[in-house]
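Form 7-S
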Amino acid sequence: VAASVWRGALLAQGSLTDPGRTASLEISCPSNEAASSLVGLAKRLGVAGAKSREVRGVHRVVIREGDDISKLLELVGAAGIQSRWDQLRAKREVRTTANRLANFDDANLRRSAQAAVAAGARVARALEILGPDIPAHLKHAGELRLNHKQASLDELGHLATPPMTKDAVAGRIRRLLAMADKKAEELGIPNTEAYLGDDSAE
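Output:
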């Protein structure tokens, strides 16, 4: 009985919007009592998301949760509409996920680029501070970083002569920067972080 009442209400005064943030299934009702009755019948059908509200003097029953909308369409026998709506919903979710991943990748690329710029700037300053006093193995690691600013530590390791692990490259660059910062402090001059912009320092 509950499903039949809802089917009649949908056919008479129902509206269904496309899936998305503002997706909704709505029924316009002649009174608050009628709206409340529909909400009760929806709950009896297992659709807990049905809500009664008054909008510009019109009493409405609104369902916004996608699962509830799909379930109700199935229960009232609107299989064709349910199928099309679910397909649209699935496509929208895939597109939303793809956009989210693309934004995530863009953010990661920006952070990686900023980190590469910062690393290059610090190494350049370290070489400047230390001058001819740089141990050869640290100088080699620093020059690798400067000459291949977009390369990963693993890639730098493969470019080294002889090849090194990424941990070895990272360790040498850390020691180079630490040595330069220590000398800068002793000389009272700007260290390797002095010329980093706000964006690069983050």
